[in-house]
Amino acid sequence: MADARVIPIKAKDPKERAKKKAAAKRPTAKRPPASSGVRGSRGSAATAAAHDEEPEAAADHAPLPGAEPAPVAWDRKVAEFLAFLRRRVTGDYEVDEFGYDRELTDRVLNAPLRPLYSKWFRVETRGLENIPDTGGALIVANHSGTVAIDSLMTSIALLDHHPARRQLRMLGANLVFQTPVVGEYARKSGSTLACAPDAERLLNKGELVGVWPEGFKGVGKPFSERYKLQRFGRGGFVSAALRTKSPIIPCAIVGAEEIYPMISNAKTLARIMGVPYFPITPTFPWLGPLGLVPLPSKWIIEFGEPIYTDDFPDNAADDPMLVFNLTDQVRETIQQTLYKLLVQRRSVFL
Amino acid sequence: MPKVVLVTGVSRYLGGRMARILTEDPSIDRVVGVDVVPPRMDIGGAEFVRADIRNPIIAKVINAAEVDTVVHMGVIATPVQAGGRMSMKEINVIGTMQLLAACQKSPSVSKLVVKSSTSIYGAGPKDPAMFTEEMEPKHTPGSGWAKDSVEVESYVRGFARRRPDVSVTTLRFANFLGPRVETPMSSYFELPVIPTLLGHDARLQFIHEDDGLEALRQATIDEHPGMFNVAGDGIILLTQAARRAGRPTISLPASSAGLVGAIIRRLGLADFSPEQVRFLTYGRGVDTTRMRTVFGFTPQHTTPETFDAFVKSRRLNRMLPPERVEAVEDQLVSLLTGRVS
Fold this sequence. Notes:
- The complex is a heterodimer.
- Chain A has 13 helices and nine strands.
- By secondary structure, chain A is of the alpha/beta class.
- Chain A has a domain of about 210 residues: 3-Layer(aba) Sandwich (Glycerol-3-phosphate (1)-acyltransferase).
- In chain A, the strands form two sheets. Chain A has a seven-stranded mixed β-sheet with strand order 1-9-6-2-5-3-4, sandwiched between helices. A two-stranded antiparallel ribbon of chain A has the order 7-8.
- In chain A, helix 5 crosses helix 6, helix 9 packs parallel to helix 11 and helix 11 crosses helix 13.
- Chain A is globular, with a radius of gyration of 21 Å.
- By secondary structure, chain B is of the alpha/beta class.
- Helix content of chain B is about 45%, strand content about 15%.
- Chain B has a seven-stranded parallel β-sheet with strand order 3-2-1-4-5-6-11, with helices on both faces. A two-stranded parallel sheet of chain B has the order 7-10.
- Chain B is globular.
- Chain B starts with a strand and ends with a helix.
- The chains are: A alpha/beta, B alpha/beta.
- The interface between A and B is large, with 40 and 42 residues.
């Protein structure tokens, strides 16, 4: 396999594609990714010798994504881990006012997401240069996939692959914070409620804020409506950006629609359980817990050019027409980018 | 400058200390403390008048002493102290009504300071991360102390409207904590095993008792009309606080929390009203920008420092002191590195 993974503009010879398909089915098969700069490590034989202190030269032994690039002696790692455990046991750590626990997020919560990002979905990120290194900005993206994994992957993309390693602060629906466990870890990983005060507070602090204005309408839409953007709420995110004069960065995510293709929605069951929808996918609930394994679609996350809001007058957020127009502009940009990426994509899983 | 100050709720810890602090101020001639029961602690040079603020006798006290400043600290948070929920509600709500009625009739009163609470913001999943003073609660508190506080504040607003010449300061305090003060939160963290809500980790803010009293003192001495949130900097999570207190936690599903709460309350161990359970589920944060910029007050202790001071002075963390954990860690590290090198 190796280095041939390039953006699909180039035509490929069919033999190689077949080989790749086979590789893609094995989750352990690793591939050096394309433009995103994901560091892949290759070959199970090589990883078996994981305790090597010195990485052998060249790319076929690069460290795992997310790990420190410099080799760290394992005893130091153990010491670090013990110190982390000690801080957990004694409560000696800090959270910010939103409840964001940086250390826990970095060491524990993000750990299972990283292989999912690089190995399972093989996320390719484009347009990272559109994200500022510092200061507030609002990332607006399409929402899909029955389970909102797309937001988590976007945050990994920005944290691990943006040069300034930016932490995305996501805005979630109140149902998220009402749900036990989900709500707790959403806050700990830096999310907060999607409401104007919180969005503005984060932007004023210079944070990178992520919003998925389609909400549950987007995540829980049937598979037949994939890549069709739903209504964009009331444009509250545009008002927040206008009030704080933060740039809006449209973001298109391709691939998330296919992870759990929702062929039907058991509405009665959903109403009984008090959830917005109850998905029926080809594998769920038929295969039980196995049905929870997402399909390994190939993802592309593209960050578009920022829409700057500092040129608008101070009271622009109170002009509903302007807010609607700007909302529409962002929505149209994302929709067009989605179409463009879909045309470029060779297949769902490659 | 105040000359004669009336302090309500003087028989409880904070009220008593407040009265003592005010008597130490040379510019104040007289401090009158009012409560239904005599104070157990020393209130310094303050005069104690045994009066129930629930009946009109309070008006006579105010007129006789020509009180110019009223510090209302008589809102009780714990039903156990008040002798049951019904009498607590009476003291809190009817008491405030009587007090404000008396103040309204009195020509001498020119300042009112009210110790309120951030519990008036309620607690729930639709809350913004940080409440500012002008925000309305998203989940209006429906029971207990929080509901009383909401009603007290609404009477205070009515009073301010009817007596615009009186300067009214309402201080909304985060939960008090410190070496001595007894609050629902202090008794909660003193439980041998701390019950928490499964799958939730509330954000908590505390105000150190010394900081809270200092804010009340400044509000009494100087002119700071308006409403202010008062809380220590920073946030501490419920489980994080339990770890710092060295207490084990037990996670209860929300459905059983009511039952366990009722048992704990019946045993008199801690206040576990439905409102308190909501607070321990979702937590709450308040923005203190106004306190800093308009009031000009900066607490000496942050929220985590306040909690640590509380843990240290009550010697809560005897089971798992951080020093011991650190020693174990050091041993493990030296063991491992010793074997490697």
